[in-house]
Amino acid sequence: MNKKIKTIQRHGKTFKDRIYIPAIIEGLKTTIKHLAHNVSDINSVDVLEYPEEQPTDITERYRGLHRLTHREDGTISCVACFMCATACPSACIFIEATQREDGVDEKMPQKFSIDTLECIFCGYCVEACPCDAIRMDTGIFSLIGREREDFLLDKEKLLSFKGAFAQEDSIARK
Ligand code: SF4
Ligand code: SF4
Asked: Does domain 67-171 have CATH number 3.30.70.3270?
């Protein structure tokens, strides 16, 4: 049986593609079109006078600062499995594990910190966690500090943050 083969030109092969100038001109045309539209009708441009005005449209899916969750009995949900640190592309999660002291045969983090200066807020740590122990639902979108240490969120700080949305605050043991 004869099959019809369709050959598709590989993008970037032509002379026009390789000199880049037509593509740059196309991009500039779009920029100038939007600029002209915005200048001609300045009132239609959505502007927030931040920080005097704060955004009010942060949704549940927004990835804000991280927090560590508690279980119903008040203990930390994290079992120091290192899945989040392994999944983190920025290598900005630091965990030191220890054995729990309340008789439960489980680990917990002795130290747990996130360097938000390195974090790219991708959410992979949240996806990787098997215990729902780490979330990015604080709704906090700005972190201000003077020293580098101010941007290092330690275990106590991560545990002190609350969820900003109407989700349960404590996690059932899995
Ligand atoms: S959000 Fe991404 S970069 Fe930030 S700590 Fe989690 S996995 Fe790492
Ligand atoms: S936050 Fe979740 S993934 Fe990270 S160490 Fe704790 S239990 Fe494991």
From this structure: yes
Owner of token pair 């030191």: 96
End-to-end CA, the chain = 57
pLDDT digits (tens, 9 = 90+) for 93-126: 999 999 998 888 999 999 999 999 999 999 999 9
Closest ligand to residue 65's CA:
1
Tell me, in angstroms, the distance from the centre of ligand 1 to residue 35's CA: 35
Spatial distance between the Cα atoms of 6 and 170, rounded to a whole number of angstroms: 57
**What's the pTM value of the predicted model, to 2 decimals?**
0.76
Query: How wide is the angle at C-alpha 140 spanned by C-alphas 136 and 143, nearest 5°?
Result: 115
Which residues neighbour 124 within 8 Å (Cβ) at sequence distance 6 or greater?
84, 87, 88, 89
Report how far ligand 1's centroid is from the alpha carbon of 31 (Å): 32
Ligand 1: atom nearest CA of 90 is 3
